[in-house]
């Protein structure tokens, strides 16, 4: 088994915050903040593009539950929800996951991008997206 997250699930080798049959949450070894959690499907899906809609929905429900626990148990003022999907996104582990990072007003760091992409798209990217959405909605 080459997927590090699948190995953690199979070997029960993580510090689990929640374990479920469809989605789970655990603490990473290198947290960005106290209480930082990763929420992931229990079955292997590489990224958002190959994850079934129901699994995505259950993942987001768990993200919301973990976020609520951060607010009540850790007194976090908010959370950052971070995810990357696909090789062009800096996804480091090819197993869909979402980082849920508790935040406080005075925590001294930012997880928000500080630069803009240098990528240029020849024609209107918003029109291209709208057309793609309309095509997939009617299919």
UniProtKB/TrEMBL annotation:
Top-rank lineage group of the source organism: Bacteria
Keyword Amino-acid biosynthesis: no
GO biological process: methylation
GO molecular function: methyltransferase activity
Positions occupied by motif Histidine triad motif: 95-99
Descriptive protein name: HIT family protein
Keywords: Methyltransferase, Transferase
EC number: 2.1.1.-
Transferase in keyword set: yes
Domain HIT: 4-110
Pfam family, one: HIT
Gene3D superfamilies in the cross-refs: HIT-like (3.30.428.10)
Enzyme class: transferase
PROSITE patterns noted in UniProt: HIT_1, HIT_2
